[in-house]
Amino acid sequence: MKENGGKRTRGNDNKCAVGNVRGGRAANGGNSARAQRQRGANALRANRGERPQSQLQAGGGLPACSVARQCGACQHVNEPYQRQLAAKNQRVAKLFSQVAGPEALRPILGMDNPYCYRNKVMSPFAPGRPQKAPKQQRGQRGGKRPSRPSAPQRDILCGMYAAGTHRIIDTSECLIENAQAKQVIRAVRSIMLKFGIEPYDEDRGTGFMRHAVVRVGHTSGEVLVTLVTNAREFPGAKGFCRELVRRCPFITTVVQNINERQTNVVLGQREQVLYGPGFILDELCGLSFRISSQSFYQVNSVQTEVLYRQAIKLANFTGAEHAIDAYCGTGTIGLVAASMGAAQVTGVDCVESSIRDARQNARHNGVDNAQFVVGDAGAFMRDMAAEAAAAGRAGVDENSRPLVLLMDPPRAGSSEEFLRAAVQLAPSRIVYISCNPETQVRDLAFLRQFGFEVRVVQPVDMFPHTDHIETIALIERA
Ligand SMILES: C[S@@+](CC[C@H](N)C(=O)[O-])C[C@H]1O[C@@H](n2cnc3c(N)ncnc32)[C@H](O)[C@@H]1O
């Protein structure tokens, strides 16, 4: 979900540092509000399968997002991007002033093209208004009378939930979602209507199709579609997939995920592969990663490369260190670390399928100095710290390799158990990546009580047009 429907770009050339953005044009020669919006217009046209045209907006009509108010997902989509970045810099400066000096703060790394960046697009399906039956069915004006009265077909709603509600907003012209993924969502809806497949009614717990989740490999172009259904039995599944792939030939795999619970959680536990291998591959920082429907994968691949390269640079591997990749997901950061100077990597994550993918990723990238463990990161660190204490070690592993801790917890941040164990293990450096600076600041304040200092704070704009900020903090012993 991250680039405009046509050609993909690779690498970290999409970053643009924004320090003091007041006055003057950005160095990338096109970040004026007008240029930004023109790119938005092109993204919209790509979403519709049309060619970008610079003259499109001649005479006014700048391409602001038409559903920004109702949708609420992109709180700042109609503000110039440079202003958004400046506001994020200010927020970071204010928040981190509690735990770091101003010399630690670095300007946010933004995108050159902050549109169509989301590589994961998800849509619920729900019953809409009853549709009028076609004229022939109504038997009017010579039309053939149907053999039995057919119930009026209902329309099917898809798009995004309006912020804080379960009201679906049609976001078929989204500015931040990948255009191909969006096309798949529309095709699923249309095939449901054609095949008479009922959308899920969350109030009644009835109907069949709950969600579609589409993931696009940024560099590979592979596309995984997960159809979340309210029952295991999927009559006509083969025909459905055939039609879907006919309409969207870029789809490489389709998975059915079964979720029969009345819950807001999108995915259930059980799955079956309907078409293709059941996963996609994508490339990050020169390595290839396997992504399945349940595994965590960053939604902005262009900025993920920027994020990872910054994190690895801050970790300053010399070829001798043992990196702990805590909250590792599919092992992406750890494997990049292994390929960029870490002597040994140990990753831990609580999702079994992510660890399965991480091990597979290590194998097919030929990385043999990384191991991955399923478990709670706090418990894992506690056990590791206890073992080190019993052996009288601090700061090094059993082979005397200096420990470096890479951590990337979910929005809730880390647990006290984890942080206490981190203090006990005494790594040379901690590189803490976070998608929630509030909980990160809380955790950094905790570490500071035990003699750690925040040396660097590097924000990266992973979610342009939204309030979300991603930050990397480098922490070392004072
Ligand atoms: C923000 S993601 C980071 C994933 C990975 N580092 C990446 O960049 O793709 C957070 C990860 O933490 C995992 N997680 C959440 N709570 C956990 C816990 N208590 N113990 C271990 N892993 C946890 C999730 O499964 C998810 O993969």
TrEMBL record:
Region (Disordered): 1-60, 121-153
Keyword Zinc included in the entry's annotation: no
First-tier enzyme category under EC: transferase
The keyword S-adenosyl-L-methionine appears for this protein: yes
Annotated binding of S-adenosyl-L-methionine, by residue: 298, 327, 349, 408
Pfam families with a match to the protein in the record: tRNA_U5-meth_tr
Stored SUPFAM superfamilies: S-adenosyl-L-methionine-dependent methyltransferases
Entry's EC annotation: 2.1.1.190
InterPro entries associated with the record: MeTrfase_TrmA_AS (IPR030390), MeTrfase_TrmA_CS (IPR030391), SAM-dependent_MTases_sf (IPR029063), U5_MeTrfase_fam (IPR010280)
Active-site residues, record numbering mapped to chain: 435
Compositionally biased spans, kind Basic and acidic residues: 1-13
GO biological process, one term: rRNA base methylation
PANTHER family: RNA M5U METHYLTRANSFERASE, TRNA (URACIL(54)-C(5))-METHYLTRANSFERASE
Family: Belongs to the class I-like SAM-binding methyltransferase superfamily. RNA M5U methyltransferase family.
Protein name (Swiss-Prot/TrEMBL): 23S rRNA (Uracil(1939)-C(5))-methyltransferase RlmD
Recorded name of the encoding gene: rlmD
